[in-house]
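Worked example 3. Consider a protein that binds adenosine-5'-triphosphate.
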Amino acid sequence: MDDLFKKLIAHSKEYGFIFPSSEIYDGLSAVYDYGQNGVELKNNIKKYWWDSMVLLHENIVGIDSAIFMHPDIWEASGHVGAFKDPLIDNKNSKKRYRADDLIEDYIEKLEAKIEKEISKAAKKFGDQFEEQKFRETNPRILANQKKIDKINERFVKAINNNDLVEIRQIIIDCEIADPVSGSREWTDVRQFNLMFDTKLGSVNEEANSIYLRPETAQGIFVNFLNVQKSGRMRIPFGIAQIGKVFRNEIVARQFIFRMREFEQMEMQFFIKPGEELKWFDYWKDKRMKWYKALVSDTSKLRFHDHDKLAHYANAATDIEFKYPIGFKEVEGIHSRTDFDLSQHQKFSGKKLQFYDPDTKESYTPYVVETSIGLDRMFLLILSNAYSEEKAPNAEGKLEDRVVLKIPAILAPVKLAVLPLVRKDGLPEKAHQIMDELKYEFNCQYEEKDSIGRRYRRQDAIGTPYCITVDHQTSMDDTVTIRYRDSMKQDRIPVSKVREIISEKVSYRNILKEIS
Ligand code: ATP
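Given these inputs, the predicted complex is written out as structure tokens:
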């Protein structure tokens, strides 16, 4: 695991962002709890997503459907039959892997070789470099590309035909080794359903088996008509939802990147058949803007278009972020045709159509969905924010500081109010300032330790502003405001604090930027 990733995990625990679940009982694998700062950051991310959907689009509304749903829903959606991952065990290390991940990682390595070749040549030839031509003629690139295409072709076919023997054969043919032990002794590939089930009802023998939902989307599809009719919605329109989901992941050892209980923020956009590619592009663009408003180094974000599409999808892409463990999916955008509504129509026997009053025709709408994992977004923000720097202490000597440069609108605590000393009426004045601001911002009062140490603690949780109350405050009603990222300090009147901070932490500005 990358060093930075380990540091993030340790930092998250030390500063109240994320704790391993049930820690005093030695934990529960791939389940995590959010601490006092984590929950604030998580709520702020939810608000940014929710407002960007529901406030910025007149034709998008939200719902909150139950986690338990009728078991037939999961038959209709295809999850009972097909929500499976192919798993494979290494006989020597006894480690379990997703067979598709092993193959995809292998392909990624070949792609990385090609990219390395290209960047080497680009450096060598400077302005004269023609990338396309180089790709088409360089023998090493051509050989690797041919390998990739061939594996991809076999892999897509094997997945679509559910051919587990062939999936294993690809692993053998590519000489893929266990990343931990280097061993190539693989078991057969088996399918593993990712849904958790439980019993509904009080008497066990009579109880019905139901599933914990593995995605929030189905709660939207089965409420399509309820929302459309009660909200008098007209196509195109969207339904957004945030909620917990559960997947019994085979391999879950990447902190909050892959959990067994996590949260999704999903929006299903219902459209006229035939318009799906237009809306697919529209949502790709909108969603990427949403990320770019938070991540200034945009080279850390990219699309990854799918080669292998689910049988019902006619376009799909992932938004990937460069985590400390490499470029990985944070969100999926899928054009799902009318698959879901048609399936629910078939299984429930209820008509799920839209009557268009203009054309006087009824049809089953198509759907473009955007589906983001809240916890992966949380990890994106943390990874992007974590920074180790040198900062001067009170004597002007440089010392280490760890700072989370979380965008101010998402920061768990917006403002720390710090009396310079614990006497002379300074604590009372600081409390007075907090009492004025606490209705709008999450503020924190701290009086213990030197001011430098208090700044360090606020840096470590990402507080963008610190206000220091000192003796001058009692004379002229001014305070110093210290900015987290630049560490600059300004003297400002107490009466100005609210205005300055409001401007910086308001969702209004960021929403305007992306709308
Ligand atoms: P992956 O290929 O990584 O398993 P997926 O393609 O199965 O993900 P989707 O079913 O499209 O994921 O789910 C939508 C989003 O939910 C993903 O983009 C991701 O952000 C999030 N997500 C999926 N599985 C997990 C998990 N086990 N833990 C945390 N977030 C997850």
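Take a moment to read the result before moving on. The chain has three domains: 1-63+216-385, 84-191, 413-514. Residues 215, 247, 249, 258-259, 262, 264, 329-332, 371-373, 375-376 surround adenosine-5'-triphosphate (CB under 6 Å).
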